[in-house]
């Protein structure tokens, strides 16, 4: 089910209120244990031994103190289950038996078609699987899988199937169950030929292909004889199946991928089956196609790194370089792992085991190193034409890397290994559209590598936390602070959203801000503030202190700017000196007074918590 238009805010609020975040997260396989007022578990988004994942039923918020991932029940389904916002809303609405707005006739008809074809594919999966498991004519298929090392548990888990040699077997079986020929054509299961409807798949082992939600959308068929070509045959493009949007095994691998924050990408169905059978579950395949933009965006929902594993031959080397720029463009790290010559993941893991394969993955090199080392191993890197081409190829990758620190380090590596001028490589990048100069890179590097908050940012964080925890104060506080005066861009973004929402709403809804925000860092900061509310007893004192210190920082900035301008322009007059003295005096005097003393704010004890609260209106200081 997919909504076609706007869903009212009130409906979203009702859906969230009727779905306990504790129940939903538990249903998704996370073992929560109560710890006081909250619940704890091992984080499903990264590997850890001590629980740092916390869920607040009161605030309907989750937050991991280890990986800093946070959000509400909708955010959890998006990240853990790989759902879009609308898919999460629909799933929660169905769970709570809440009706969503009706759709127009065209959308309703399309949705009915999708639902019908999904059911038809489920029938086909079950039918083919039963033929493989018990059919008289499937002995050859069963022997083939047995010889390839496929266990019965793996066969059952992946619902492998078998299509008979007869060309009208599925046509008859599905028609008998009430499905029409047109529906089977629309699902890509049969073809209309001169002699009538014919099964698309015959005398093949079938690998059902599912979308990320576990709905069967198509099949991959492996021929059982060399004469039967092509060796592998996939379903055609249908309303359900588009190979540029589907990744084989993502439905089963997504939780492992989210937990490990790494994806192993292999070439074939059997590679996936064997690795999964050996306990390596974060593995997917691209169904015989190079990675598309849709693949990259889909993977971005689940992971920050993709390790691409290919056969150790020339075709594997070439295949490893297809579509990788799209991954890098989505800010996904790309590493390459090559099998020993003559091996593929399937054969390697059967002969050497999961630990040996994991060692290969651990030794995978990044894409830049891969391309440089590949060129060096060709023994012709000294040739000017070869080196020129390598520089162009590397530059195409580098220009797509969004992380400036990472890009700079790769530039240094390339310069050293290829023995080229660094300035030449940066010029190549600028010609490809990179808008950045060395001084900007240096400043960016310093900023990106410094994870510790400055004293001013710490004050900004404390202010943001209090605003999130006491949104009833926002309307009055906003007249005292311009969000553009905050130096941390994430804090400034949060305050901007709070200010914007408070113009249209009397009561600011933080949950709605989480629903509309796409910045994961901002979500993390908000979730952390909400789940830690009990640790801050006095918001009145905190807000007063933060505004006072920020005002002092702002005055100090003005002083420094005037002083710097005077020095750079050679100005040395009494007027400028007097301005600096006045600003310095104002700043020192400001530290001694209370920014809110002229307001009507008074501390008032909360009847339930005895924590001071702020009441009344805050008037802007003249």
Structure explained in plain terms:
The protein has 622 residues and is α+β, with helices and mostly antiparallel strands. 51% of the residues lie in helices and 12% in strands. It is built from 28 helices and 18 strands. The strands form five sheets. It has a five-stranded antiparallel beta sheet. Helix 15 (345-352) packs across helix 16. It is globular, with a radius of gyration of 30 Å. It starts with 8 loop residues before the first helix and ends in a 7-residue tail after the last strand.
Task: Name a few traits of the molecule.
disordered C terminus, five-stranded mixed beta sheet, five-stranded antiparallel beta sheet, 51% helix, 18 strands, 622 residues, alpha+beta, globular
Biggest sheet details: 5 strands, antiparallel
Number of strands: 18
Protein structure class: alpha+beta
Radius of gyration, whole Å:
30 Å
By DSSP (H or I, 4+ residues per run), the number of helices equals 28
Shape call: globular
The overall pLDDT, averaged over residues, is 81
Alpha-carbon distance between the termini?
56 Å
Low-confidence stretches: 1-5, 437-450, 594-622
Strand content: 5-15%
Helix share bin: 40-55%
Could you state the oligomeric state of the chains shown? single chain
In what order do the strands lie side by side in the largest sheet? 1-2-3-4-5
């Amino acid at each position: 089910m997919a909504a076609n238009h706007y869903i009212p805010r009130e409906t979203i609020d009702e859906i969230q209120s009727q779905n306990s975040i504790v129940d939903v997260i538990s249903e998704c396989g996370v073992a929560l244990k109560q710890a006081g007022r909250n619940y704890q578990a091992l984080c499903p988004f990264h590997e850890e031994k001590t629980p740092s994942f916390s869920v607040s039923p009161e605030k309907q918020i989750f937050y991991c103190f280890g990986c800093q991932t946070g959000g509400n029940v909708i955010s959890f389904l998006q990240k853990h289950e790989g759902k879009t916002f609308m898919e999460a809303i629909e799933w929660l609405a169905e769970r709570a038996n809440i009706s969503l707005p009706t759709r127009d006739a065209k959308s309703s008809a399309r949705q009915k078609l999708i639902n019908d074809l999904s059911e038809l594919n489920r029938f086909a999966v079950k039918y083919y699987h039963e033929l493989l498991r018990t059919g008289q004519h499937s002995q050859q298929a069963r022997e083939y899988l047995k010889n390839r090392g496929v266990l019965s548990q793996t066969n059952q888990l992946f619902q492998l199937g078998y299509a008979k040699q007869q060309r009208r077997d599925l046509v008859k079986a599905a028609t008998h169950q009430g499905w029409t020929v047109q529906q089977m054509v629309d699902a890509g299961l049969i073809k209309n030929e001169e002699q009538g409807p014919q099964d698309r798949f015959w005398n093949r082992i079938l690998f059902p292909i599912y979308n990320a939600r576990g709905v069967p959308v198509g099949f991959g068929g492996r021929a059982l004889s060399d004469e039967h070509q092509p060796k592998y045959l996939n379903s055609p493009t249908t309303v359900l199946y588009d190979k540029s949007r589907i990744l084989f095994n993502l439905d089963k691998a997504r939780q492992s991928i989210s937990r490990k924050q790494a994806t192993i990408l292999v070439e074939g169905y059997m590679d996936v089956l064997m690795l999964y059978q050996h306990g390596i579950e974060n593995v997917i395949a691209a169904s015989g196609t190079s990675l598309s933009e849709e693949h990259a965006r889909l993977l971005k929902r689940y992971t920050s790194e993709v390790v691409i594993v290919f056969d150790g031959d020339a075709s594997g080397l070439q295949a490893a370089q297809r579509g990788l720029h799209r991954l890098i463009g989505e800010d996904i790290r790309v590493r390459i792992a090559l099998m020993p010559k003559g091996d593929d993941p399937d054969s390697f893991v059967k002969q050497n085991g999961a630990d040996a394969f994991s060692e290969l993955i651990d030794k995978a090199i990044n894409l830049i190193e891969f391309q440089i080392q590949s060129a060096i191993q060709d023994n012709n890197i000294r040739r000017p034409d070869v080196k020129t081409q390598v520089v162009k190829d590397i530059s195409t990758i580098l220009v797509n890397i969004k992380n400036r620190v990472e890009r700079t380090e790769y530039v240094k590596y390339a310069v050293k290994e290829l023995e080229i001028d660094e300035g030449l490589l940066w010029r190549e990048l600028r010609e490809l559209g990179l808008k950045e100069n060395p001084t900007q890179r240096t400043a960016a590097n310093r900023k990106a590598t410094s994870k510790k908050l400055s004293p001013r940012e710490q004050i900004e964080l404390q202010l943001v936390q209090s605003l999130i925890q006491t949104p009833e104060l926002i309307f009055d506080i906003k007249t005292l602070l311009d969000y553009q005066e905050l130096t941390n861009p994430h804090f400034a973004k949060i305050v901007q959203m709070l200010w914007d929402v408070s113009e249209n709403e009397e009561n600011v809804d933080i949950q709605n801000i989480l629903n509309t925000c796409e910045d994961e860092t901002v979500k993390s900061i908000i979730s952390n503030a909400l789940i830690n509310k009990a640790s801050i007893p006095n918001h009145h004192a905190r807000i007063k202190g933060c505004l006072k210190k920020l005002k002092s920082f702002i005055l100090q900035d003005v002083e420094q700017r005037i002083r710097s301008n005077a020095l750079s322009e050679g100005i040395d007059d009494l007027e400028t000196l007097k301005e600096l003295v006045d600003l310095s005096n104002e700043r020192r005097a400001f530290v001694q007074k209370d920014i809110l003393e002229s307001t009507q704010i008074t501390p008032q004890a909360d009847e339930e918590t005895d924590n001071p609260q702020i009441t009344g209106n805050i008037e802007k200081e003249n």
